[in-house]
Amino acid sequence: MISSTPKALLKLGSSHQKVIKLQQLLSQKVGPISITGIFDYETEIAVKTFQSRMFLKPDGIVGFLTWQALYTNAPVNMPTLRQGCHGSAVESVQELLSIDLYYTGVIHGQFDHEMHQAVKRFQADQGLPTTGVVDALTWRLLSEI
């Protein structure tokens, strides 16, 4: 964790020097927004967009995990997924991999053989080791889809 990560909890209506930093980071990662120092509706939408990309709950509130993702430009606290895993994280990966047709099966939250092969194809195209395991680096590249 980067020690300079702000710890301030920011949300709609906040006005603080840290809101300027937040708006600058969001402008780099989501697209240009107004740098006003006031957490307005435009900032909230940008926060929610960024949170969705980073697999965070898109609540528009900037807390510790959102700050960490902003500074690292990578998803945080994501589970390592492999064949046999199941649940909403697997379903999220299936949905993302289906966008570029790496995964063409049923989106059911089961990390089965078909899902394993889809992850390997994605990893190969991204220049990653083709382990078929969704690790931190794979999550980071998935967040760019």
From TrEMBL:
InterPro entries: LD-transpeptidase_YkuD-like, Peptidoglycan-bd-like, PGBD-like_sf, PGBDSf. Residues 16-70, 87-142 form the Peptidoglycan binding-like domain. SUPFAM superfamilies: PGBD-like. It holds the Pfam family PG_binding_1. Gene3D superfamilies: PGBD-like superfamily/PGBD. PANTHER family: L,D-TRANSPEPTIDASE HI_1667-RELATED (PTHR41533), L,D-TRANSPEPTIDASE YCBB-RELATED (PTHR41533:SF1). This is Peptidoglycan-binding protein. It comes from Adonisia turfae CCMR0082.
